[in-house]
C-alpha cells in the first residue's frame, strides 16, 4: 500500500463516494473518483456530500436554471498540452470550475436537455464534445469557444445523435437522427482524424429492431448496448468496421447504470446485474436473493433514473435507484464485485 495516498487535501470532494473518509486511492485514478456525481445529493443545482457535511461548489452558487438544476455529469476536459479542466453539465448549461468554489458558464445558449437527460462526452481533436440524449445536438468547447458542431455528413444535411464516444482517431455517433429521421440502431463513425466528417461507408445498422441505449469501450472494441441485446464493434486495418452480436435478449435495462473500465463493464439488465470482461461473454453476477431484493424493488415507472459507478481499486459497485413508489433515487447499494455479494443497502437522505 506504499504507493497509495489519502485524499487528505481533497476533503471538499470526498463525499463523491460516501465512504471515502478513510479510503486510500492511487493518485493516477483521482480523476475517476472526483468526476463521479452518482452518489451525492444534488439540491437546487448544488453538489453536496451525501452526509450533508459540505458543498462541492459554493453555497451561494446554483448551477443551471430554475427547473433544470440537475447536474448530469462532471467530466474532465483534457487538452493535448496536458492541461485539464473540470466541467459540469446541467440540462441547460455547460460550466467550468475555474477556482475552488467558482463555476463559470461556458455555454451561451440553452443546450436543450431535461433533468433526466443522459450525458455522453468525448475528448477529441483537442476539444470537449458532448451531447444530451434528448436534444441530440452535439456541442463542442475548445477552451475559448462554445458552439454546436456543424457536421459534414454524406447525403445528410442535419446530423444528430443520442450518444457519442471517441475511439482511436474516430468520433462515434450512435442512435442517430438524420434530417429528422430517427435511426435507433445506427452506428456512424467519422472519417479517421477528421471527426466532424462522416461518410456512408462508415455507417452501420447493427440490428433490424431494438434501440441503442448506450455504448462503452472495452479493450480495443466498442460495446454497443441495446435494450434487448449487446453488440461488439471494432475497426480492423485490413477489413474496416466489423461487428458481431454478443448476446441477444439481455440488454441495458437502466441506461445510466452502464459503468466500468476498459477491462470490465457492469450494468443492470432484465436478467439482473451483469458483468462483461474482456475476452469473455456477458455474465450475470447476481443471484436470486439479489434480484428479489434489488430488481423487484426498483420502481417500474422511474427505473431509468437508476445510476451506477464502479470503483475498480475497491472492487465495489455503487448503485442508486428509485425504490418502488419513489420518483427519485432514494436507495443505494454497494456490491462487492470480487466476492460477488451485496455488502450494503441504505436509504439516501433527500433527493439525488
Tell me about this structure.
The protein has helices at residues 30-34, 288-293; strands spanning 5-6, 24-25, 41-43, 46-48, 76-78, 84-89, 94-99, 102-105, 119-124, 127-132, 139-141, 146-148, 152-153, 159-167, 170-178, 181-191, 194-205, 212-218, 221-226, 229-236, 240-248, 259-260, 264-269, 272-277, 283-284, 307-311, 316-321, 331-336, 341-347. The chain is mainly β. It has a domain at 253-352. The strands form eight sheets. The chain has a five-stranded mixed sheet with strand order 13-17-16-15-14, with no helix packed on it. The model is unreliable at 1-56 (pLDDT under 50).
Structural class, by secondary structure, is mainly beta
> Uncertain regions: pLDDT < 50 for 5+ in a row?
1-56
Mean pLDDT: 82
Q: Quick one: how many beta strands? A: 29
| Measured distance between first and last alpha carbons | 33 Å
Estimated radius of gyration: 20 Å
Helix count equals 2
The best one-word shape is globular
Described by strand count, sense and barrel closure, the largest sheet is: 5 strands, mixed
Classify the beta-strand content into a percent band. Answer: over 45%
Amino acid at each position: 500500500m506504499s504507493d497509495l495516498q489519502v485524499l487528505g487535501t481533497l476533503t471538499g470532494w470526498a463525499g463523491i463516494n460516501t465512504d471515502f473518509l478513510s479510503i486510500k486511492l492511487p493518485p493516477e485514478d483521482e480523476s475517476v473518483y472526483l468526476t463521479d456525481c452518482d452518489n451525492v445529493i444534488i439540491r437546487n443545482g448544488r453538489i453536496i456530500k451525501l452526509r450533508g457535511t459540505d458543498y462541492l461548489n459554493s453555497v451561494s452558487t446554483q448551477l443551471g436554471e430554475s427547473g433544470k438544476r440537475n447536474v448530469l455529469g462532471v467530466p474532465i476536459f483534457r487538452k493535448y498540452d496536458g492541461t485539464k479542466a473540470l466541467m459540469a453539465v446541467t440540462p441547460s448549461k455547460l460550466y467550468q470550475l475555474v477556482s475552488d468554489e467558482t463555476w463559470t458558464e461556458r455555454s451561451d445558449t440553452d443546450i436543450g436537455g431535461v433533468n433526466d437527460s443522459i450525458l455522453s462526452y468525448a475528448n477529441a481533436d483537442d476539444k470537449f464534445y458532448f451531447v444530451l440524449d434528448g436534444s441530440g445536438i452535439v456541442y463542442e468547447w475548445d477552451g475559448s469557444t462554445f458552439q454546436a458542431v456543424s457536421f459534414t455528413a454524406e447525403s445528410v444535411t442535419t446530423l444528430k445523435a443520442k450518444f457519442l464516444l471517441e475511439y482511436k482517431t474516430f468520433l462515434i455517433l450512435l442512435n442517430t437522427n438524420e434530417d429528422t429521421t430517427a435511426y435507433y440502431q445506427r452506428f456512424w463513425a467519422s472519417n479517421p482524424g477528421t471527426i466532424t466528417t462522416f461518410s456512408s461507408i462508415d455507417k452501420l445498422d447493427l440490428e433490424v429492431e431494438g434501440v441503442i441505449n448506450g455504448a462503452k469501450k472495452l479493450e480495443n472494441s466498442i460495446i454497443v448496448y441495446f435494450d434487448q441485446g449487446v453488440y461488439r464493434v471494432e475497426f480492423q486495418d485490413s477489413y474496416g468496421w466489423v461487428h458481431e452480436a454478443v448476446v441477444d435478449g439481455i440488454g441495458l435495462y437502466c441506461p445510466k447504470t452502464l459503468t466500468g473500465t476498459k477491462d470490465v463493464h457492469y450494468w443492470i439488465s432484465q436478467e439482473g446485474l451483469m458483468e462483461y470482461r474482456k475476452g469473455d461473454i456477458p455474465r450475470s453476477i447476481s443471484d436470486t436473493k439479489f434480484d428479489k431484493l434489488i430488481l423487484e424493488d426498483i420502481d417500474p415507472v422511474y427505473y431509468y433514473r437508476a445510476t451506477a459507478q464502479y470503483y475498480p481499486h475497491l472492487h465495489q459497485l455503487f448503485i442508486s435507484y428509485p425504490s418502488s413508489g419513489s420518483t427519485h433515487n432514494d436507495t443505494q447499494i454497494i456490491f462487492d464485485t470480487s466476492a460477488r455479494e451485496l455488502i450494503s443497502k441504505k436509504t439516501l437522505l433527500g433527493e439525488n
